[in-house]
Amino acid sequence: MAESHDLTALEQAAAIAGGELSSVELVEHHLTRVDALADTVGAFVTVTPELARAAARAADAVPADERGPLHGVPTAIKDLTLTAGVRTTFGSAAFADFVPPVDADVVRFMAAAGLVSLGKTTTSELGCSLYSEGLVAPPARNPWDLAYTAGGSSGGAAAAVAAGLVPVAQGSDGGGSLRIPASLCGLVGYKPSRGLVSGGPVGFGAYGLPTNGPIGRTVADVAALLDVLSRPVPGEPYLAPAPPAGGWLGSARAADPGPLRIGRFTAPMLADEPVHPDCLAAVDRAAALLTAAGHEVVEVPAPLGPTVWPLFEIVWYVLALAPVPPERESALLPLTRHLRARGAQVSAGTLTATLGELQAQVRLGARRTAGCDLLLCPTLAAPQAPLGWFTEGGDPAEDFDRQRRFSPYCAVFNVTGDPSVSLPVGVTAEGLPVGVLLTGRYGDDARLIGTAAQLEHSSGGWDRHPAIWRAVASANVNGSGVGRSAP
C-alpha cells in the first residue's frame, strides 16, 4: 500500500477531501520524515512542528465546500521569504536570530489556501549563489546522491520535495534559483512571467529579475501551487498577466497547447562553455517527444550570447547589496562579501546604463526568435556538481565564474521576464536526473504549462524517487499508509 508521501500534492488533498486522510495525519507523517531526513539532505533551516500541527487542525475544521485543490497539504517556505513570527535567516549567520514582523504576500496566500508549512527551507546566503551551503544549516544535498549539491538558491526546497519531506514547496528564482535545483533533483521548477506572483509587501522588485514560484514533482502540482501564489496585489511594480479560464491547474490538466513552433538551441548564453553530452541528450529526447506530439521543432540561434554576461554581472553585484547591519558584515560568507564589494563600486550612472543596454539586448534576442512559440534548451551545462565544488578553490571570484559556466542558460530568462520551467526529461548513466529548459513568451504561462504537462505525459511521467525515499522504514513514519491514522 502506498504511503502518504508517495502521493502527489493533489492526491494528498484528494485523500483529505475523500476522508481517507486528515491534514493532521499528513502533517504528522511528513514531520516524522523531516525529523529523520531533513539534516541528512540539508532541507530545513527551521522546522515549526507546533505551528504546523495547529494549522493542520484548523485546516481539518474548514467546511468541505470552502476547500481548494491543495487544502491541508504539507509544504515549506524558503528561508529568503518573510514569515511573521518565524526565524528567517536569509541563509546568513548575519541574520541568524531575525524574526520578521510580517508575512510575505505568498506566505499569506498559501495559508489562506489551507496549505500547512512545516518550516523554512535552506537557501544560499541572501540568495547570491546557485548552491546552498551556508553557516546556519547543513548544506542542501541532492537526495539522489548526497555527494552532490541540491543547488540554490532554492536548494532546501528541492531537497525537501525530492526526499519526500513535503510534496510541493515555495521558492524563488532570480537567476535560475528554482530551475537549477529542480534540474539537479529531478523535479519541476517553475519561474513565472514577471509580475505574475507578488514579491511584496516589501522590496523594490529588484529590476524584475527575481520572482516567487513553485517547485514540485509533477506539472499539475506545480500549476496548482502557482494558482495559490499568483493572486493580484495592489501596488506591485509589474503588471500581472491574466490567468486562463480554469487557472494554471486547468492548463496542466488539459495538457493540450495545440500545435506549436518550438525553437531549439544548445549554445550557452552566459559563457563559452562546452555542454555535457547528457545535457544535450536530454534536449534531443525532449525535442523528439515534442515532435511526436505534433509540434514543429526547429533550430534557432540562442537569443543572447556571452557578450551579455558583463551586463548581468553588474546587476548581480548590485543586487547583493541587501541591507546588512554594519556590525554583522563580518559574518557574511566570502562570496557574499566579494559580490557586495564589487556592487559598492557600481555608480548610479553605470547601473542605469547597464539596465538600458540589457533591455536593448532583450529586444534583439526577442527578434531573433520571434517566430517561435516556445524555446527549448538545456537547463545546465553539466548534469550535477559535487558538494563544495564551487568553493573548493577558496577564491570567491573563481567561485562566481564556476557558477556562470555551470549555469549559462537560466538567468537570461530572468532578464527577459519570460516564463521558464525546468523539466526532468533526462537521466545520466548513473541514474541521476538531467533537466531541460522550456521557455515561453512573456505572459503566455498557460501555453508553457500545457506543453510541459503534455511532455510529462508523453515521457511516461516524472514522479521518480531516489533510494532515500525508502530509507525511513514505515514503522518510523507512524506506519501510516493511505487511510491509516498516525498515533
From TrEMBL:
Q: Where is the Amidase domain?
A: 25-448
User: From which domain of life does this come?
Assistant: Bacteria
The record ties this protein, via Gene3D superfamilies, to: Amidase signature (AS) domain (3.90.1300.10)
The UniProt entry, under InterPro entries, shows: Amidase, Amidase_CS, Amidase_dom, AS_sf
Q: What GO annotations for molecular function exist for this entry?
A: catalytic activity
One Pfam entry for this protein is Amidase
The record's similarity note reads:
Belongs to the amidase family.
Tell me what this protein is called: Amidase
